[in-house]
Design a protein that fits this description.
The structure holds 2 protein chains of 2 kinds.
Chain A (H helix, E strand, L loop, with lengths): L2 H5 L3 E2 L5 H4 L3 H36 L1
Chain B lengths: L6 E2 H23 L7 H24 L2 H23 L13 H22 L16 E2 L3 H17 L11 H8 L2 H15 L5 H20 L5 H17 L3 E2 L1 H24 L12 H9 L1 H8 L2 H11 L2 H10 L1 H4 L5 H13 L11 H9 L7 H6 L8 H9 L1 H21 L1 E2 L2 H19 L4 H22 L2 E2 L2
Antiparallel strand pairs in B: 1-3, 2-5
Helix pairs in contact in B: 1-2, 1-3, 2-3, 2-4, 3-21, 4-20, 5-7, 5-8, 7-8, 7-9, 7-21, 7-22, 9-21, 10-13, 12-13, 14-19, 16-22, 19-20, 20-21, 21-22
The chains are: A mainly alpha, B mainly alpha.
Chain lengths: 61, 479
């Protein structure tokens, strides 16, 4: 590769989003898994918070 | 490509979390509750462990370094600490005031909420981190001799730091902390080896890694207790910045397992060595030699008492203890954890070297005057009896912003960290990964907060040191 051309190359974050990369079935399965894990985290934390509110209420009563 | 003998750090931490939760349940069943832990605490601990596991699985698929750092800190310094409190219900920090399981339960729920806010902030952008380790043909590594000389100078400076301050004047501490931050020199050197591993000679590799090890050993025997942890963190951020994941093989896992008892020994040894190096002229006086021999930190080794050996380490890694203490006594601590105090402290300690405008010591140093119920300290008081306490981000932001507003702040900060990480760019591949590693290091230090005033000072030191030294490490471009 010519040096001048190479020097112009810049290391940076590529500006595509996730969906551009998802082409194979494997990627689709990964994306689905990620979604499931994401919602599990939200549900687990939300559920813990609500349960804790109930426990505190029960302790006061 | 990872083969079947290789193991992802995320997976290892998943197993550690599961083992910690099982250990907590077994310990609770066999020993029952104590003054700090009740059944509800163990249930909350298992929920926090589950949250960690899910985040680690998510981070593994996405090669998300921030999530890995967040989950690793929570695992080592919070989940493991609750288990250690079940094993041995003792804490120096908890002696400051009466702590009950309710305080710990409150913190565990707050940590779960805070971590999910950070997780959402880190994933609020759809852009994905891209990893490309290919070095362009026209870029070659900087001279290894530069790296070796700088590391050598760092070790010399470490020795000079032991000499009385008057030799180098009143600015020596400030100059070293801002312009020659030793931790950053280590990071630069590690990153140099990681990026150019196959492009530098074996001799250079050994020389640099040998000097890094010498630095850690020298640091330990002169009383720095966290040398191995610092090295592990720098290695973690260095590798994550380049590869986005850490693949471990059986040998490395075995080495890690061996390093755990070694780090416990080194921690106790460094603490016992501390009095030796307070005043250099009489380092080896008979009195100090006797003090070292009788040090309580080495007593556990002499008596083969594992509980006694581990106790100082449990106390030091008890970031949970600091968070609990902060939140429990937030009214008292808010005297030094507020915007006005931080502003004065930043002016005095970061922006005006050599003189003070307000006479305000850093929050990390002033905290002991609050819990010991002493009058507000001056800089002279701090110099006479130096002591720093950790605030942790959970404790500090809970006091600064309040419980629920703090969650929003966590979200915003994490989002900003991720956006900065995604926006980094450089023509030079070394600088590109260096900037990434620095953002990860700053994220790590933000989580383990010693106060916003300290954080600002740390940022100044990081930027100045990197600005001064990066050119010695960056790639050489052949024209």
């Amino acid at each position: 590769m010519p040096a001048a051309k190479n020097n112009a190359f810049m290391f940076k974050q590529a500006s595509f989003n996730e969906s551009d990369q998802m082409s194979s079935q494997d990627s689709e399965a990964k994306a689905k898994n990620l979604k499931i894990i994401f919602w599990l985290i939200i549900l687990l934390t939300g559920g813990t918070f609500l349960a804790d509110v109930l426990v505190q209420y029960w302790k006061v009563m | 490509m990872p083969n079947k003998d290789n193991f992802d750090l995320n997976n290892l931490l998943v197993i550690v979390n599961v083992l910690l939760c099982i250990t907590a349940l077994v310990l609770y069943i066999t020993t029952g509750p104590n003054q700090y832990i009740e059944l509800y605490t163990v249930i909350l601990l298992c929920l926090l462990g589950s949250q960690n596991v899910l985040m680690l699985l998510y981070g593994r698929v996405k090669r998300e370094p921030f999530v890995l750092i967040l989950a690793a800190i929570t695992t080592v310094f919070y989940v493991a600490r609750v288990v250690s409190l079940l094993y041995n219900p003792s804490s120096i920090t908890f002696n400051r005031s009466v702590v009950t399981p309710d305080h710990i339960n409150y913190l565990l729920v707050f940590i779960m909420l805070s971590n999910v806010s950070m997780f959402l902030g880190l994933n609020a952008t759809k852009r994905k981190i891209v990893y490309d380790e290919n070095i362009p043909e026209d870029q070659s590594p900087a001279k290894a001799l530069n790296v070796i000389i700088i590391l050598f100078v760092a070790i010399i400076i470490l020795y000079i730091g032991l000499l009385p301050v008057s030799v180098f004047g009143r600015f020596s501490g400030y100059i070293l902390a801002v312009f020659f931050r030793l931790r950053l020199i280590l990071l630069l050197s590690l990153l140099y080896v990681i990026i150019n591993f196959r492009r530098i000679s074996i001799g250079s590799r050994f020389a640099i890694l040998g000097l890094i090890l010498l630095f850690v050993v020298f640091n330990t025997i002169t009383g720095s207790r966290s040398s191995l942890l610092t090295l592990a963190v720098l290695l973690l951020v260095g590798l994550l910045s380049v590869k986005g994941r850490i693949i471990l093989n059986n040998k490395i896992i075995l080495l890690g397992i061996l390093l755990i008892p070694l780090s416990i020994f080194l921690y106790n040894l460094a603490t016992a060595c501390r009095p030796f190096f307070r005043v250099v002229p009489d380092v080896f006086s008979e009195q100090k030699r006797l003090a070292f021999k009788e040090s309580s930190y080495l007593k556990g080794f002499r008596q083969f008492d594992i509980t006694q050996v581990c106790q100082p380490v449990f106390d030091r890694m008890g970031y949970l203890d600091f968070s609990v203490d902060m939140i429990k006594n937030q009214e008292q601590y808010s005297r030094v954890i507020n915007a006005e105090y931080y502003l004065k402290s930043i002016v005095d300690n970061s922006l005006t070297p050599g003189f003070n405008v307000f006479g305000t010591p850093r929050t990390e140093n002033a905290l002991q005057y609050i819990y010991r119920d002493l009058p507000s300290p001056t800089h002279q008081d701090i110099n006479n009896a130096y002591h720093a306490d950790m605030l942790t981000i959970y404790g500090e932001y809970h006091i600064l912003f309040g419980k629920y507003p703090a969650l929003l702040i966590f979200f915003i900060f994490s989002y900003v960290f991720k956006r900065i990480y995604l926006a980094l760019k450089s023509k030079d591949i070394f600088l590109f990964f260096l900037y990434r590693a620095i953002v990860l290091l700053i994220f790590y230090e933000w989580l383990n907060s010693f106060g916003t005033d300290w954080f600002v000072f740390d940022l100044i030191g990081i930027f100045m040191t990197v600005f001064l030294f990066k050119n010695f490490y960056k790639m050489r471009t052949e024209s």
